[in-house]
Hints:
single chain, 337 residues, alpha+beta, seven-stranded mixed β-sheet, 10 helices, globular
Amino acid sequence: xxxxxxxxxxxxxxxxxxxxxxxxxxxxxxxxxxxxxxxxxxxxxxxxxxxxxxxxxxxxxxxxxxxxxxxxxxxxxxxxxxxxxxxxxxxxxxxxxxxxxxxxxxxxxxxxxxxxxxxxxxxxxxxxxxxxxxxxxxxxxxxxxxxxxxxxxxxxxxxxxxxxxxxxxxxxxxxxxxxxxxxxxxxxxxxxxxxxxxxxxxxxxxxxxxxxxxxxxxxxxxxxxxxxxxxxxxxxxxxxxxxxxxxxxxxxxxxxxxxxxxxxxxxxxxxxxxxxxxxxxxxxxxxxxxxxxxxxxxxxxxxxxxxxxxxxxxxxxxxxxxxxxxxxxxxxxxxxx
Length: 337
C-alpha cells in the first residue's frame, strides 16, 4: 500500500547540530549536488537524492530540443489568462498537459531514460501476496503525475514555501538520512530550465534536507538555495522538499518546464485521461502509455473489464485477463502440491 497517511511520530533524537542547522549526519551542509546528465549513474543520483532531497542534472537536453519545446508550447502560453488567488502571481502564465501539447517534451523529458530509471529506483513499490495457494510478487512502478510549463514575468512576487506532496495528505516523522527508506516519498519533480534561470528572475528556491523533516513542521527560509541553471539543465527534487518560485526582480521572463513522477498506486495530480484525447493516446507505444498511467499497476489496479486498459484505448474487445499467475509467482501449491 502507498504510504499516503503515515502517522507522524515523535521527533527522533539527533546529535548536536543535525537537521536543525542544515547539517547532515556527517556534519556537512545539505546542498544540491550537480551531475552531468551524460556522465552520471542512477545509483549516484539516488544516493544524492536520499541525502539532500534535491540535485542538479546538467545538460539534460540540447539547445535544439529546448527551442523545439518552446515552439510547441508558445501558442498555448499566449492564450493563458492571469491567475486569481494565491498560488501564482498574475505575471505568471502557465499551461498543463504537455504530454499531448508538446511531443518533444513527451519524448525527451517525460520518457527520458535517466529520469525514468531514477523514478523507478525511488518510487517503485514491491510486495508479495497470497491468493489461496498461490504466492506471487508484484512491483508497482511509478507513473507520470503531470506536466506544467510556467512563464514568470518581471514583477512577479515570490510564492510561499510548500511541499508538492500535500496533495496526497502525506504525513511522516522527522528522520536522519540513514533512516530513509523507499516508500516515504510519494513523488518526485523535475524542473527544466527553458531560459537562463537566476535568483534575480525568480529561480525556484528550495531548502536542501527539508525532505527529512516532519510533515507538520513549518517551512523556513533559513538555508534556502536558488536553482540557477542554463537552458536544458534540470533541477530534480523529492516532493517532500520545501520549495517555491521566487520573485522576478529582473526585466526578463523566466521559462521553466516541470514534470512529476508519482507512485503507481496514487491518483495523478493531472487527469491524463481527459487531458490527452483518447484517439491520440491510441497512437502511442505501450511504454509511453505505461508511464502516463494507462496500464494497470501490478497486481490489479486500474484495469478495464479485468484487462490491460491499453486494449480498450485501441478498441480491442478481447485479451488476456489479469490473474495472479501472470505475476512473478513464488509459490503455486495448485501445481506443485
